[in-house]
Structures are given as structure tokens and as C-alpha cells.
Amino acid sequence: MECPKCRATLPDDLLQCTNCAADVSFMVTTPQGTNYGPYSLQSLRQYVAEGRIPPGSQASQGGGPPVPVEQVGAAPPAPAPSPPATPPAAPRPPTATGAAPGQPGGLPPGIPAAPLPPEPISSPGVYRGNAAAAQAPIRRAKKKGVSCWLVGGIIAAIVLIFGGLLVFAVFAPVFSKARGKAIQTNCGSNLKQISLAMLMFAQDNNQTLPDPSNFREQIKPFMGPNAEQLFTCPASGKGEESYEMNPNLAGASLTTINNPAQVPMVYDAGFPDGKGPHEGGWNVAFCDGHYKSVSQGEASQYQLEPY
């Protein structure tokens, strides 16, 4: 017998090629459409010779095109006779009952043979007469494919996780800086409203600024219902009073202040010493009503002198 895949010459009693593991068994389809098998070539020839396969049946090897079973089951030319080394084996008994007298094999034509027991395994890896065993390499290949997919999925997940961490590490400083700028802007808005309230207080009090020790209570009537929230910098803890008034402006009149755009009036606590809450700097509102962000290097030019 020849393997249809690798063309290797094989014994007639095999169901699987020992060279490439291809399926070399035969499946038989009767004229009524019933399928039987798998059979080795040796078993197929025996069943054809015994008349146990209905005439007109088709046989296909390894899923290949069907051919008449008589063509496949034809016995090969008999070799030259030689003296037998051992006595001939007894004929195999029929596997089903109810045969009509005088018919070969003990079964009438058209009645399929009963399932035969699996033939013995002659060597490791060679399966004979056992279809389930013949499919074992296919099942192992499928399991191997599933394992490859699983490993690939795990590797892809790890790559995605590390990629996400890398992106976060790159952009986290950018997001943190943007958040700091937003907090600094909100703080400057608070100081702007506080400084305008102080100027309104001065207009109602003969241009005199409020007392630095109690300026919050004095200007609250000019700040509306959210005054308490405006006295807390977003960079500080909730409820903290984050702003201070220039102590040297106690009892000062706006008319006596020279260059009010350079005189700090209210600012983040700690100005101008130490480190400010906004990347080391401070927000400062001046006596003319404007505010600006002052870095540590610029703070020294704004000396808090008596006026």
C-alpha cells in the first residue's frame, strides 16, 4: 500500500502512515448511503473477498475521492508458491448470525458486517483497527494550537499593560503641571475679588484700607454669600484661611501710597519668605487692584515697607 500524502510504501494492515502520520484508512459507502469503516487495506480486501460488502459500494482512502470498492478490494497478484513454514491458520469465524446457507462469510449480500474488535498494535505510534487512537495526533495538535493562542494572548496583555504604564509615566508630569496651573489660576481669581472688596471698603471709609488683623470680617459685606470660600486657596486644605494682608498697610490711605501697582496688598500666606504654594511661587494682589504670579526669584523686589 502507498501513502497518498508522502508516497511511502506501507504494510496493508495500517490505518495511519508511520512516516507522515497521514490517514491511510478506507471508508466504505454502500449504495444505500450508509458509511462503514475505517478499514485497513488488508481488512477491506478480506471483506470484499468474503462478500461482506454490498456490490456497488464506494471506498475512499484518507478522505480522498471514492472509487469502486471492487477496484480497491481486488487482491494483489499471488506470489510464487513456496512451502509454508507454519500450518495455515484456521478461517476466521463469522461475526454475525442469521446467514443463509451457502453464502460466503456467513452473511447475505447487502447486510453489513458487525463491528470488528480493534486489531493489535504492532509497534509504538502505529494504530490498527482503532479510529479513536488514529485521531490522537490530531487532538494533540489542536491542544498545541490552543496553548499557542493562550500564550500569545498573555503576551499581548502584558505588552498592553506595560505600554499603558509607559504612557502614564510620560504624560503624568504634564497632567500634574496642568492641574497646578489651574489651581494657581483659581487662587488668582480669589485674590482679585478680595482686592476689589478691599478697594470698595476704602472708598466707603475715606480711602482708608481695612485693618490687616481683621480685614476678612471687614470686607465680607462687599464679597457676597461665597466670601468664606474665597478666603481659601485651592492648593490649601479645605477651610484654611490661606491669604494674608500686608501688615504695613494698617491704617494706610490709598492717596498716600506711591506707585500702588508695585505695593503688595494681599497675597498667599508666607510671602515673600520661604516657598510659595504654586510651584514655589505666590499669587499677589496689588493696591491698584491687579494681581500677578510672583516666583521666588522675583519676591525680593517687593519689600513690605510701612506706608
Description:
- With 307 residues, the protein is α+β, with helices and mostly antiparallel strands.
- The chain has two domains: 1-73 and 87-128, GYF domain (Dna Ligase, domain 1); 177-301.
- The chain contains six helices and eight strands, in the order ββαββαααααββββ.
- The chain has helices at residues 41-50, 69-72, 131-134, 136-204, 215-219, 227-230, and strands at residues 26-29, 35-39, 58-61, 67-68, 243-245, 264-268, 282-286, 291-294.
- Strands 2-1-3-4 form a four-stranded antiparallel β-sheet.
- Strand 3 and strand 4 form a beta hairpin.
- The longest helix is centred in the middle third of the chain and has 69 residues, at 136-204.
- The termini are far apart.
- Mean pLDDT is 76; it is low at 95-108 and 116-129.
Task: Give a brief outline of the structure.
The chain has 307 residues and is an alpha+beta fold. The protein has 2 domains: 115 residues, Dna Ligase, domain 1 (2-Layer Sandwich); 125 residues. Helices cover 31% and strands 10% of the residues.
